[in-house]
Amino acid sequence: DKEKQLVRKTTLDERWYGGLTPNEKDFWWKPSVTWIASYYPKGPEYMRYVANKGWDESERIKNEAGDRGTIVHHAIQKGMEEGKLKIGDLIKDREGNERAMTPNEYYCVQTILQWWTEYGKPKTVGIERTVISEKHDFGGTLDYLFEDGLLLDIKTSKDIWPSHESQISALEEGAKENGLKVNKTAILQVG
After folding, report:
1. pTM summary value
2. Distance from C-alpha of 73 to C-alpha of 156, rounded to nearest angstrom
3. Which residue from 37, 51, 162, 171 puts its CA 20 to 30 A from 155's CA?
4. Hey, how many other C-beta atoms are within 10 angstroms of the C-beta on 188?
5. Strand pairing of 6-10 and 15-20?
């Protein structure tokens, strides 16, 4: 976030937000609310899934799902900004490489663009906007915050977990702490 002079550092299993202290001589770090919420227990169904797939395969599938989520998020933004999106459009992945969407990714994007159109194409106040909570000591990224105060978190996962609900609740607090108006929150499962 160039405006706020913040950085987001993502590794294979962690995400942190950082910036310069007021004296600009030291750097501070805050853990990502998504990373914190990921430690909330997912329940016995998830544990059975990991046991059946094995750890390595489960991690591979999780990483592929993350890549898919990145493409979908970037394509949604492009569709909202340009007012149209074709399956052959090139979209940036996590590494910044451009590639065409898969049919499944395109379908996910079309479901949210349809919702957005039916919702009246509300204007955004923030897309992928970083918020820092000094009070609760975390950083996070808002997927979409609309003028009417709707904070929308988009999920491409097959399930909505309690950790997702914790994440959006924390992001709401962080947004309000940063002076943003949030009247309601929603998780939209695309596809």
Report:
1. 0.86
2. 9
3. 51
4. 16
5. antiparallel
